[in-house]
Write a structure and sequence with these properties.
The complex is a heterodimer of chains A (333) and B (455). With 333 residues, chain A is mostly helical. Helix content of chain A is 77%, strand content 3%. Chain A has one domain. In chain B, the strands form three sheets. A two-stranded antiparallel sheet of chain B has the order 1-2. Chain B has a two-stranded antiparallel sheet with strand order 3-4. A two-stranded antiparallel sheet of chain B has the order 5-6. Classes of the chains: A mainly alpha (333), B mainly alpha (455).
Chain lengths: 333, 455
């Protein structure tokens, strides 16, 4: 119990974060792509494609944060102070992009909330990428508490990860628009998807080379025997997925490019898990070091097994309810 | 320049949570009102209920968005500003917050999507059911967060090892001694807050002679609700006070500015507590009033502030005055609601213009009372963050004061902008008013409940 409970919880939180990255990823991506059209009715169409979903999508972020506190309070208590500034920038960015959905409708001039939506979405993606990069690089810990300064996270690598995530979310957003819209919005999204796919591949390659070079523990994880015999398919499958994504965009398919973009994200995510597990706070604290009391993990696991199927059920229901394409000029309230 | 990280962390949390609580106070009640309107629409087929439902849903959407985004901030602040608190209490409080997310947040967020965008895509019963689910979700959310807060006031079902709390009995944790009272008090407060907003909007329309039928309906519904809930709140508050006296007597002493526990307590209508000297200045009091309220006996005794050293006392002035603000608003609400019910019974509710004018200005009462009440209970717990387990000063993160000061300034700026526009937009929606149903003004509406859903 002492051994496997934290592993199960790492799986649960990993799943919540993956859900968040995919779901809020595409709707943050819409915000990142917002400046690349001049037509207000096209922006309405873009917004309409995500308006029924964004609130639920962002709830996965709350689950990630609360889940970390539930299952790994000691990790939560190190990670949050370590990324104090990026976390607060992310939260404030999400404030502005979240209210933009509703304020934009009521406001007489949409432009100021368009700006809030763009800056909020882009900054949130940047901050999340920076936090991810900072995690990979490691957090200084002394006596179980964060032992660095307010700007320890500010490294070139973390900034590159931030920009990478902006590109990645934009790819998810563009392929979502290919799937959910038609007309000029979908056409532009198709062109953007190809550029963003290349950008994302470039960043994935850069991070994949940079991390083993900079972090010996990551190099050892990937390139030592026998790991390398099991792990070599990861980059190969990634390359094949990217190739398939490109082909499907070329073939003007609607749904497959989005699914391929999700698969790319998951492969990258899987790669990061391989690089870092079982560290929750690299390079010192593992899932076992930071776990909550078994009684707490069991109590919440019970609730998760009971409630999560319902959550997934009605999340699926709402995506089904708002299936199909949003047409140009379709009202959004 | 030296920054005090504890003070700044407290200021930041106080600011962000006061901002946040404004919106749940409103949306918990408003979602229930929207669901009620929906149920009445389905039952009667009267389209007026449906268009009122859609009108309030627009206002709900703006308020709820502000509540959601300011709530996400809070779920991360436990870690950013209060990491040592998170380590000490995460085993106990973490799951309560986890249950809130899984049982409530997803429910609210998902079915809000149906409520806002689904009217053309779902049958009316499912549309109304979604409103009911959103309302239930907000109440479930209140259940869990108040359980967590109450545990910080009256911890139970745990054991301490090396300063870290470990759960021993989850039922005792969730249903800790102050939880039922606090939950009932807050939920009722949220419904009252919304009731007074609806009352004010209804009064505004009737005075202005616009949307008169809608305004009258709002007035009737709001008065029926508040005439029951406002007196009920006094009874709940009384019981809550007795519970606090049993578990946090020094908080009660601060609420009443009661210094000497060897004498019965007066109820101070006004006083200026002098925390250095341990006495009150400028007292205007009802002799033995506090004893009567708290012990239900004229000469009943309850502990005074002087029974503990100054370092163990909460900030008396803040607690004392915040309690008076809440109480005064509560009593005013009872009077206003009962007077409204009386006028309604006399048949002059819609023509008593001075009453309508006064009520039109009263939309803010509930919000201020809720904030004042939270200031009482949170400041009254000081110097503890978790009563008897952890002091607030020991709970902060290893983050420099200057960083907290900087982000506090950002929060004030950002929330100020959001709040200003949010209020402006809500006022604009209220000024626009409900869209009249297509039927005639004489009150004969379509009796077919499904006619509106598929247009």
């Amino acid at each position: 119990m002492e051994w496997y409970l934290p592993v199960i919880w790492a799986g649960v939180i990993g799943t919540a974060i993956a859900m968040y990255v995919i779901l809020d990823g595409f709707d943050l991506g819409i915000g990142i792509l917002f400046p690349f059209t001049r037509s207000e009715s096209e922006r309405d169409q873009m917004m309409r494609s995500i308006a029924p979903f964004w609130d639920g999508n962002e709830t996965w972020l709350v689950l990630g944060g609360a889940g970390l506190l539930v299952a790994f309070p000691r990790a939560y208590a190190v990670i949050m102070p370590a990324f104090y500034l990026p976390v607060i920038v992310m939260l404030l960015a999400l404030v502005f992009r979240g209210i933009a959905f509703e304020f934009r409708i009521v406001s007489r001039s949409k432009s100021k909330w368009n700006v809030a939506f763009v800056i909020g979405s882009t900054l949130a993606a940047l901050a999340q990428g920076v936090i991810l990069g900072g995690m990979i690089e490691g957090i200084p810990v002394r006596d179980g508490a964060y032992a660095g300064g307010s700007f320890h996270w500010a490294t070139p690598f973390a900034i590159v990860c931030g920009v990478a995530l902006i590109a990645g979310y934009a790819l998810l957003g563009a392929t979502w628009l290919v799937m959910k819209t038609e007309g000029p919005v979908a056409e532009r999204a198709r062109r953007q998807s190809k550029i963003l796919l290349l950008a994302m591949l470039g960043f994935m390659a850069a991070v994949s080379l940079w991390t083993p070079l900079a972090e010996p523990r990551i190099a050892a994880r990937w390139f030592s025997a026998p790991n390398i015999y099991f792990l070599w398919p990861v980059p190969v499958v990634t390359a094949l997925t990217a190739f398939a994504c490109w082909r499907w965009i070329e073939q003007r398919r609607d749904v497959p490019p989005f699914l391929a973009a999700i698969a790319l994200f998951m492969l990258g995510y899987f790669g990061l898990v391989i690089s870092n597990f079982p560290y929750l706070v690299p390079p010192s604290l593992t899932v076992w070091d930071t776990a909550a009391a078994p009684a707490s993990q069991i109590f919440m696991l019970f609730g998760t097994l009971l409630l999560l199927p319902f959550v997934l059920g009605y999340v699926a229901f709402i995506y089904w309810l708002f299936r199909g394409k949003v047409r140009e000029g379709e009202s959004y309230h | 320049m030296e920054f005090d990280p504890v003070l700044l962390a407290r200021l930041q949390f106080a600011f962000t949570i006061i901002f946040h609580i404004i919106f749940p106070s409103f949306t918990i009640g408003l979602s229930a009102y929207i669901a009620t309107l929906g149920a009445l629409w389905l039952r009667s087929g009267n389209e007026r209920y449906q268009h009122l439902m859609r009108f309030w849903t627009k206002i709900f959407a703006v308020s709820f968005a502000m509540g959601v985004v300011s709530g996400i901030v809070l779920s991360y602040q436990f870690g950013t500003n209060w990491s040592r608190f998170s380590v000490a209490t995460g085993n106990v409080l973490g799951p309560l917050l986890g249950y809130e997310v899984l049982a409530a947040f997803f429910l609210e967020a998902t079915f809000l999507g149906v409520l806002l965008f689904g009217i053309d895509r779902v049958p009316p019963w499912l549309y109304v059911l979604s409103a009911a689910v959103v309302a239930t979700g907000t109440a479930i959310s209140a259940f869990w967060i108040l359980s967590a807060n109450s545990w910080m006031q009256t911890p139970a079902g745990y054991e301490l090892k090396d300063g870290v709390a470990y759960p021993t009995d989850w039922l005792a944790v969730v249903f800790n001694p102050s939880f039922p009272y606090r939950f009932a008090h807050m939920l009722n407060a949220a419904y009252l807050t919304t009731g007074f907003v609806v009352l004010a909007v209804g009064a505004r329309y009737v005075i202005a002679g616009r949307h008169i039928e809608d305004g009258r309906l709002m007035l009737r519904m709001a008065i029926a609700l508040t005439a029951i809930l406002a007196p009920l709140q006094l009874a709940i508050g009384d019981q809550h006070g007795l519970n606090t006296l049993a578990h946090q007597p020094i908080k009660i002493a601060a609420m009443e500015a009661h210094w000497d526990g060897s004498k019965p307590g007066d109820f101070h209508i006004f006083a200026w507590p002098d925390e250095q000297a341990g006495v009150n200045r400028f007292e205007l009091s009802i002799p033995k009033g506090a004893s009567l309220i708290l012990t239900h006996q004229m000469n009943g005794l309850f502990p005074g502030l002087n029974s503990v050293p100054a370092s163990e006392r909460p900030p008396v002035k803040i607690v004392f005055f915040a309690f008076r603000i809440m109480l005064a608003i509560g009593l005013f609400m009872i009077a206003a609601a009962l007077l409204g019910a009386f006028l309604w019974w006399r048949g002059s509710l819609f023509t008593t213009r001075w009453y309508l004018r006064a009520m039109a200005q009263c939309w803010w009462l509930g919000f201020v009372a809720v904030i004042a009440g939270w200031v009482v209970t949170e400041s009254g717990r000081q110097p503890w963050i978790v009563q008897g387990i952890m002091r607030t000063a020991d709970a902060t993160s290893p983050v420099p004061g200057a960083t907290i000061a900087g982000t506090l300034a950002l929060f004030v700026l950002a929330y100020g902008v959001v709040f200003w526009f949010g209020i402006t937009y809500i006022n604009r929606l209220i000024a626009q008013g409900p869209q009249e149903p297509a039927a005639t003004e004489s009150g004969h509406f379509s009796r077919r409940p499904f006619s509106a859903a598929h247009r």
